Structure to design on (240 residues):
């Protein structure tokens, strides 16, 4: 009988499975491809290798440490190293999502960065969506190339492979993965129509400052977030 992941991580294991299945529902992944993880105290939990998402159960989610070790009899995803290296190098990362979406993967095969043709590129953490240099899947070289492409970013393409992103929580990481594929689809379409107009560095700097508070409710934004010119005036008195 297979060993199970520690029962103290039951909630987190269920969340990993939900994120895996949501990726397929959103159409940004398919079958057994891609992988999902979330950080825990001394390591992370990751989807297993070769098991269809619809068939996953919490005991099949694999616990790993940050030195490349795993617990139990279920093998982790073959891309465990990318997840581990993100957690080791980016303390703000609470969850990682790796996908093989159609448009992002197609653009990754061109081995080019996606420029700021749309301001939502800022959701990837910078003024471009970079493409990491090619390396064989599952290798340390791929992970090293990925980390370089992720400098000052929270998402990147992986040449001839797919895409990867991270966020503070699983739901946010899946949101970023979905937006990444939407942007790649839009870029592919606009590039087929002509040369897209690219936003300059000054405008993207402004957008990136505004994105510190983008999609956040009161009290969720950093204290130094730029909300100038965007906040409506509250008419009621919250103290009442």
């Amino acid at each position: 009988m297979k060993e199970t992941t520690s029962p103290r991580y039951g909630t987190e294991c269920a969340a990993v499975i939900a994120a895996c299945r949501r990726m397929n529902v959103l159409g940004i992944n398919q079958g057994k491809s891609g992988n999902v993880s979330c950080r825990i105290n001394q390591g992370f939990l990751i989807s297993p290798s070769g098991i269809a998402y619809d068939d996953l159960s919490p005991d099949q989610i694999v616990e790993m440490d940050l030195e490349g070790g795993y617990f139990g009899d279920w093998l982790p995803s073959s891309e465990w190293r990318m997840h581990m290296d993100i957690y080791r190098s980016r303390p703000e990362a609470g969850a990682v999502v790796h996908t093989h979406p159609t448009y992002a993967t197609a653009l990754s095969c061109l081995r080019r960065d996606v420029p700021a043709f749309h301001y939502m590129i800022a959701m990837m953490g910078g003024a471009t969506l970079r493409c990491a240099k090619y390396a064989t899947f599952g290798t340390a070289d791929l992970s090293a190339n990925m980390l370089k492409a992720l400098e000052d970013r929270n998402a990147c393409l992986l040449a001839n492979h797919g895409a990867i992103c991270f966020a503070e929580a699983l739901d946010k990481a899946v949101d970023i993965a979905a937006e990444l594929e939407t942007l790649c689809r839009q870029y592919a379409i606009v590039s087929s129509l002509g040369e897209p107009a690219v936003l300059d560095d000054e405008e993207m700097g402004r957008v990136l400052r505004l994105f510190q508070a983008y999609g956040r409710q009161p009290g969720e934004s950093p204290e130094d977030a730029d909300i100038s010119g965007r906040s409506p005036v509250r008419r009621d008195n919250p103290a009442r």
